[in-house]
């Protein structure tokens, strides 16, 4: 190999994308070895993996924006539950059109995200605390909306009589597959969210502002960046994506469960971090997050294909998060 | 009579380097019992490095330290403290979330044999110490609740409470008011009578001559002279501080000096926490297109605060009237200032200038993004990239690529990136605070050439620099600030290093020229 090519390769190796991709390839190689009698080579396994990580991945999109801004959003799991419950309530007992329900739920998620952003940017409360409070608050709100029960198509009328209503078509559509059953709609939604996040971070001025605020807030302010507006936008987007994830979750579970999505925020954070986005802020990308989502998704899939017990799965996941981050840092 | 007493502490040919750069070139120093030795020197003369060596912060240096004639090598600050050296650093080192008493005994707690802290004893003792320092503060108050000047007094009280042989005070009065200064001086007098030694660092003439038994002058890391205060009158002292050689280079002719662009009348900036202190106090001046006005002053002179006020980023409330290009100008924030085509380069590239992970190209375009944005908030990437390419080439920024994070660049190249960002905003008024701080000669020369070319394009520049040579090299006029006021205004040939330093230290050598 010529010196120049070697130098080019070395530079490529230094990019975080290359490192993240290598970790993913490593995971795929492990899957190829422990292939569970060839199961790993069937597309349906990959399709199901993608379906299973999609809701987490949608959360991870918003989380990426917030983490690049040097923040954190713990409230995404509760916002997901709130929007799942809201979507189910609007379409089932309230009998509203699905499109209307989706718009309402997305608006509500965005609004609550903006509120977190406002408290972070204007009131100068630490993101961890603000979103911890929002996590608790939104979970409570989800229980208020649902009356503390799961909302299903088994509807109880005010007079005490109950009946079964038809599940709106939207539930089926979101939980269906296209391309001859080879791709789930939730996966398409996830990939669309990745695209939107990529546009925001890499193509819009807002993205430049997010990186600058996360990298050095004072420097951003002195360069004329509207720091507060940027932070509000980051959390608003995270709320929006959490609401999208909530609709998908409701469709997949065919119900609105106020207890759903507990702990998902930690999975989303792990996916972002494994990709190589630093919690210190100012660096990272949604491409990295996409790779991180796939890495964790494959890890889980390989473990379940090989019938690894739950305990092993948890311990290995923890260990691999640390290894991946060390690997990302190099050396 | 008696033989000469042994010095409390003596340093012999102390040398210290940071990386390849030697900052102390063999300095000697002696402090006798019962004397106040004032350490004088310009910013960057090596005073702080010397203090850090004496107080055990820097342990890797060459040369000798002797305590009462016995050679000694400190292993760290704690070791120096145990050996009887108490230091009050310029920066506050109190824990704001702890009480006054807790802070006074931090690291030196009164404990019983089980390690339990005797809070009652500490509070009693604290009360005594505070009274001694002339402070009326309850020991149970939280430090964070106290004004900065009181905090500094507590810091001093903490150091002075120690039974140390040698006290080092590094600009202790910078945030104190008059009565507090008097209380401090009284304490120093007592310590002196008790036969303790004091090393006192200050930029203020009046303090030097009130306190000093002897004065040691440092310049550029070398020992210049040590003499009794009486043998070193102010004029002589200033001459020693700046070096004998007079700068005879004729100032650059003010080539394209055009119409007045900035008129400042009675600009004042109040201290953000201590309302009776004014960071800037009634500053007025006019700046023309294509002119470089130098602002000289020692730390705390208010020069940086003038620049920040003009950028809408002052530390405290601003008053006064400013006219920019004929219309009133009072920016509510940096954004507004940039829109009016004013840009500030702060003196702290790391903390307030660059984000280390941002790429070169994103860093230089950050302040001019409105120009590179289409409707809908989309970045005009080709235009932005082209501008970044162009400006980094003109500035000769050495970077592996435009996409490399700026942390990978050398200090000089980072500074160029920062300057490039300022210039891309197309300013008509550029506020430069120490544009060449901490960079090598090559980058400095590049930056001087750039500054000259901007002026030729009609940009007006307000420049702060602590390097006098730079001041004389670049500026058409020089304004010297002292404690927030204009101490002298010097034009062209009338400016000498002596006059600038004298005025900066509050020694009325200036006058209007």
Describe the SSE topology.
The complex is a heterodimer of chains A (331) and B (513).
Chain A: H1 3-14, H2 16-33, H3 43-68, H4 76-91, H5 98-121, H6 127-146, E1 154-156, E2 162-164, H7 169-174, E3 177-178, E4 183-184, H8 185-203, H9 205-215, H10 217-222, H11 227-253, H12 264-275, H13 286-305, H14 310-329
Helix pairs in contact in A: 2-13, 3-8, 3-9, 3-11, 3-12, 3-13, 4-5, 4-6, 4-11, 5-6, 5-11, 8-9, 8-11, 9-11, 12-13, 12-14
Chain B: E1 9-18, E2 21-31, E3 36-40, H1 47-54, E4 62-67, E5 70-72, H2 77-82, E6 85-88, H3 100-104, H4 119-132, H5 148-161, E7 166-170, H6 178-193, E8 197-201, H7 205-211, E9 214-219, E10 222-228, H8 234-242, E11 260-270, E12 278-288, E13 292-296, H9 303-310, E14 318-324, E15 327-328, H10 334-339, E16 342-345, H11 349-353, H12 360-365, H13 381-394, H14 411-424, E17 429-433, H15 441-456, E18 460-464, H16 468-474, E19 477-482, E20 485-491, H17 497-504, E21 511-512
Parallel strand pairs in B: 3-8, 3-9, 6-7, 7-8, 13-18, 13-19, 16-17, 17-18, 20-21
Antiparallel strand pairs in B: 1-2, 1-4, 4-5, 9-10, 11-12, 11-14, 14-15, 19-20
Helix pairs in contact in B: 8-17, 13-14
Return the CATH topology of the largest domain in chain B. Rossmann fold
CATH C-level label of the largest domain in chain B: Alpha Beta
Give me the secondary-structure category of chain B. alpha/beta
CATH topology of chain A: ABC transporter involved in vitamin B12 uptake, BtuC
Q: What does this 3D model show about the protein?
A:
The complex is a heterodimer of chains A (331) and B (513). Chain A is mainly alpha-helical and 331 residues long. Chain A has one domain (38-155, 166-329): Orthogonal Bundle (ABC transporter involved in vitamin B12 uptake, BtuC), CATH 1.10.3470. Chain A is built from 14 helices and four strands. Chain A has helices at residues 3-14, 16-33, 43-68, 76-91, 98-121, 127-146, 169-174, 185-203, 205-215, 217-222, 227-253, 264-275, 286-305, 310-329; strands at 154-156, 162-164, 177-178, 183-184. A two-stranded antiparallel sheet of chain A has the order 1-2. In chain A, strands 3-4 form a two-stranded antiparallel sheet. Chain A is globular and about 80 Å long. The mean pLDDT of chain A is 90. With 513 residues, chain B is an alpha/beta fold. Chain B has three domains: 9-242, Rossmann fold, CATH 3.40.50; 249-341 and 427-513, Rossmann fold (3-Layer(aba) Sandwich); 354-425, no CATH class. Chain B contains 17 helices and 21 strands. Chain B has helices spanning 47-54, 77-82, 100-104, 119-132, 148-161, 178-193, 205-211, 234-242, 303-310, 334-339, 349-353, 360-365, 381-394, 411-424, 441-456, 468-474, 497-504; strands spanning 9-18, 21-31, 36-40, 62-67, 70-72, 85-88, 166-170, 197-201, 214-219, 222-228, 260-270, 278-288, 292-296, 318-324, 327-328, 342-345, 429-433, 460-464, 477-482, 485-491, 511-512. In chain B, the strands form four sheets. Chain B has a seven-stranded mixed beta sheet with strand order 16-17-18-13-19-20-21, with helices on both faces. Chain B has a six-stranded mixed beta sheet with strand order 6-7-8-3-9-10, sandwiched between helices. In chain B, strands 2-1-4-5 form a four-stranded antiparallel beta sheet, with helices on one face. In chain B, a hairpin with a 7-residue loop joins β11 (260-270) and β12. Mean pLDDT of chain B is 85; it is low at 245-251 and 509-513.
